[in-house]
Amino acid sequence: MSTPIAAGRTIWATKSAIARRACGCSHGGRRAGWNVPGPRHAPVFVALEETVRRHQIPRRPFADLILAFVQDQNVTRYAGWDELFDYCRCSANPVGRLVLYLCGYSDPERQRLADSTCTALQLANFWQDVTVDLLKNRIYIPFDVLERHGCLLDDLFARRFTPGFREAMRESVAKAANCSSRAFL
Known about the structure:
Blueprint: H1 5-13, H2 15-23, H3 43-55, H4 60-74, H5 81-91, H6 93-102, H7 108-128, H8 130-135, H9 143-148, H10 153-157, H11 163-182
C-alpha cells in the first residue's frame, strides 16, 4: 500500500462515467420531470412530488444527492481538495439547500452560507471518522495532502500516528475551519 499515492489518483477518474449515467438515465423517475434512476412510480418519487411542488424545490439537489450515493459506491480515494469539495457539493450541500427550500428561502446568499456550513460539517465528519473509513477502505484525506506531509498509506492503514499523519490532519482540520469561517464572512 505504500506504492506512490499518485497511482491512487486514477481511482477518482472512474467516478464520473458511472455516476453521470445513473443521474441521467433514460428510464425511471421520469414522473413530474424526475430524471433519476428507479421505477417510474417508486414511492420515494410519489412521496416527494407534492413537497417539491409546494416548496418549488428544483430537481438539482436530489440529482446531486443521487450522484453522491453512486460516487460512494465507486470512489474510495480523492486526489486533491477540488475532488473532495466536488463530492461535498453533491453529498452535503444539497441537504442544506433542501432545508432552505423547505423553510421558504432560495436566495443565493443563504445558499452560499448553507454550502460553506455543510461542507465544513462534512469535512469535520470525515476527520473524526478516519479510522472508521479505513475499515471500509475509504480515505477522504486528499492524496496530495498525504503526499505533501509524507504520510504513507501503510502507516495510515496500520493506524500509526506519524508526524506525517499529524501534519496531514492539521492541514485537513484547518481546511474545514476555513470553510466554516467563510460561512460567516
